[in-house]
Amino acid sequence: FSLFGALVCFACSLVALQGIHSRSTFSRILLLSLSPPKEEKKMKLISVLVLSFSFAAQAFGVSSDPALARKSALIKPSAFHKEAVNSPLFRDPAAVRGGAVPGWAAYNDALDKKPIITKAMTSLVGWALGDLLAQLFIVGGPIDWKRFASLSFFGFIWHGPSGHFFYNWLDEKIPGTTGKIVATKVAIDQAIWCPIFMTVFFSYLGLVNGDSMSAIGNKIKNDLLPACQGSWKVWILVHAINFKFISTKHRLIFINTIQIAFNMFLSMIGSK
Fold it and tell me: Cβ(198)–Cβ(232) under 8 Å?
């Protein structure tokens, strides 16, 4: 979990800056950068998007260094790491100290021993960071801790466990990575799973906010199609990469890495 730990430390440092806002003029100057004009917000969003994808590339061991690639080809992977390197996006953990990133071997061990709770915690961290960064960089103002807790818990209680069962089932029923198979999986994910996921999401938020069942029903009726259309603009491409290159047990950590950036994008759209 060292990758997520680094992200959590980074986010916590931003919260700490916000907490000392009233203590010094210098703090106020720093915090003014968290509520910039729209143009600067867009630049910060782009920076976070690049950072998010950089972390994803590092976590999955993507490297353009040919020397490292040659070295990886010469080193026989250990039996413990064999499954983690089946995908071409994962470098041989025997070729680098501690695997692709520190803690990667321990994370894979947790996925093998306790996959549901590990994926639930992965989604909790992904949704928590996505909302926290969105509130700090895009929305501005004081942090809405109720919203932060609600979305974090949704990642833990629904996104992680449901993703585990759905993607395992999909890969079992439709194995392979050919173009036709990948296209079929993406179509099932976005045409069937996406509406189900969005319906659960809207229902959950409505219940957390104390809305009536009729209000929740109207929310789903009015916003389900726009939400799915927004998802299709991003997740069709993401899942094409996901189903083509990423192994089954690593799908959710890949999705959550992109989800951090996607949550910030949604917040920017919602703040207009």
Answer: no
Dist. CA 4–CA 257, nearest whole Å: 9
With a cut of 50, list the residues of the chain below it in pLDDT.
1-4, 6-8, 10, 13-36, 53, 55-73, 75-86, 88-89, 91, 93-98, 269-272
Which one, of 52, 50, 62, 49, lies nearest residue 100 by Cα? Answer: 62
> Angle formed by the axes of helices 2-19 and 25-32, to 10°?
120
Q: Which tokens in the block code for residue 247?
A: 């192994």
Among residues 156, 69, 66, which one has the least CA distance to residue 116?
156
Q: Supply the pLDDT for residue 5.
A: 52
Q: Are 50 and 77 in contact (CB under 8 A)?
A: no
Q: Is 212 exposed, middle or buried (0-12, 13-18, 19+ CB in 10 A)?
A: exposed
d(Cα 237, Cα 251) in Å, to the nearest integer?
14
* Nearest in space to 104 (alpha carbons), one of 122, 130, 123: 122
